């Protein structure tokens, strides 16, 4: 439809092949490495440094990345070294954690880091300290997402709305999983490029 594209490539290789300042918002959820799922491979510090440099190069405006708690400092340092500004971190509070019976540390809370390339703080996007949304089984069934660790579309729409000033803008998710960022971006009237190395979830 000219508004969206889905790729099935290695995220690191894809990022190195894309032109500078291709996107207005990079919104993504890399693997945490906290489950026994084959796709959930934890990013090393070197991986994070590489991604931070590529994200800083690829965005015209800002990045918003979901991350595990113990990688907040690493990500913030990597983004700062990559030249990003106004770096913030916060929490996503899950108002229902019934969908995952396993005692994973992300059952009730997940964390994120934000950074932008805006040189004047006066024009920086509003960065909320926290977001809250439901992840109940009913919502999973309603939204039709097949990935076992998806982010709710309502949550992603709010984030996209907060960090895009005009329409249409170009949103990029190199670790798209079930594609919920793509759905949210299209609902908000934006173009989107999605990628995941395991396309069966999309």
Please give a structural write-up.
The structure is a single chain. With 202 residues, this protein is α/β, with parallel strands linked by helices. It contains six helices and eight strands, in the order E-H-E-H-E-H-E-E-E-H-H-E-H-E. It has helices at 11-17, 45-58, 72-81, 137-143, 153-162, 180-187; strands at residues 4-7, 23-28, 59-67, 85-94, 109-116, 130-133, 170-173, 191-195. Strands 1-8-7-2-3-5-4-6 form an eight-stranded mixed beta sheet. Helix 6 (180-187) links the parallel strand 7 (170-173) and strand 8 (191-195). Helix 2 (45-58) packs across helix 3 (72-81) and helix 5 (153-162) crosses helix 6 (180-187). The longest helix has 14 residues, at 45-58. The protein is globular.
- What does the oligomeric state look like here? single chain
Q: Per the principal axes of the C-alpha atoms, what is the gross shape?
A: globular
Alpha plus pi helix count: 6
What is the structural class?
alpha/beta
Q: Strand order, biggest sheet?
A: 1-8-7-2-3-5-4-6
What's the helix-strand series? EHEHEHEEEHHEHE
What can be said about the biggest beta sheet? Answer: 8 strands, mixed
Question: N-to-C terminal Cα separation, in Å?
Answer: 17 Å
Number of strands: 8
**Residues in β-strands, percent:** 15-25%
Mean pLDDT: 84
In short:
The protein is of the alpha/beta class and 202 residues long. It is built from six helices and eight strands; from the N terminus they run E-H-E-H-E-H-E-E-E-H-H-E-H-E. The protein has an eight-stranded mixed beta sheet with strand order 1-8-7-2-3-5-4-6.
């Amino acid at each position: 439809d000219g508004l969206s594209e889905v790729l099935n490539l290695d995220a690191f290789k894809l990022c190195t092949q894309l032109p500078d300042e291709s996107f207005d918002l990079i919104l993504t959820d890399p693997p945490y490495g906290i489950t026994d799922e084959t796709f959930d491979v934890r990013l090393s510090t070197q991986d994070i440094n590489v991604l931070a440099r590529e994200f800083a190069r690829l965005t015209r405006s800002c990045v918003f990345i979901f991350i595990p708690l113990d990688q907040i400092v690493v990500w913030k340092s990597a983004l700062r070294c990559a030249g990003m500004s106004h770096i913030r971190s916060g929490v996503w509070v899950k108002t229902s954690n019934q969908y995952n019976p396993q005692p994973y540390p992300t059952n009730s809370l997940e964390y994120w880091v934000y950074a932008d390339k805006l040189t004047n703080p006066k024009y920086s996007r509003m960065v909320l300290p926290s977001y809250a949304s439901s992840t109940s089984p009913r919502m999973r069934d309603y939204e039709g997402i097949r990935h076992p660790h998806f982010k709710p579309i309502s949550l992603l729409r709010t984030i996209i709305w907060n960090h895009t000033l005009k329409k249409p803008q170009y949103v990029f998710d190199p670790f798209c999983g079930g594609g919920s960022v793509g759905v949210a971006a299209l609902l908000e009237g934006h173009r989107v490029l999605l990628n995941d190395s395991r396309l069966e979830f999309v």
